[in-house]
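Protein modeling request. Please complete all fields; requests missing the sequence field cannot be processed.
Requester role: graduate student
Desired output: 3D structure, token encoding
Chains: 1
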Amino acid sequence: MKHYEGYLIDLDGTMYRGNEKIDAAPRFIRTLQEKDIPYLFLTNNASLTQKQITEKLNGFDIPARAEDVFSTAIATATFLGRKKKGARCFVIGEEGLHNAFQKEGLEIVQNNADYVVIGLDRHLTYDKLAAACLEIRAGAKFISTNSDLAIPREDGLYPGNGAITAAVSASTGVEPVFVGKPESIIMNEALRIIGTDKSRTIMVGDNYKTDIQAGIRAGLDTLMVFTGISKREDIGNLPDMPTYHVDTLDDWIKKM
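Delivered output (256 residues):
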């Protein structure tokens, strides 16, 4: 096993499961700190701010600072900020997305938008969907934070941002540009921040379809851990194998 100089790490299913602690996670992060290996938490969740995500991690005894967290909200904001400084954006989303856009200097507007950006919004209304469709038909470019059709909760799977995005896409006939995992946009943005060479950076996650596929598409080595969505019995049916797979992150610590 080669030495990795940087780690991109998924959250839900890898660092915790919903509101449930994963015992190996704090030990894994402390091992990275002891070895002075940089890491960045990578999440498709665009609804929370860096501070809110950091507080959740700290609540599970996982060492984290705001700057260690990179969400699709931040990735989308930085991606659009480089495309058009101060771009006018019609935004469907929650605090995390609005906060990231404001920090990037993007203008959140209700009409005449350059971009329509959709993130998970648990206060979604028909009027918001209608306004997004009108802006896209008027020429705004269509961006979505991620394509997750469903998100896990303690009582089952809830509609994800991909489901909201699909409604707008079906109405307008326009396919969006997706930013989050498994797409390469969030990976490229994250690599700029962590500053390590792609050949020496590894993506760690529990979900083959998002985390592991994101790493594979971006040309990174990958580590799949069986503490979340993907299970060990799935391994034989995967089209592209992860570079490594372990039952828990404790197994990985022994190899570092």
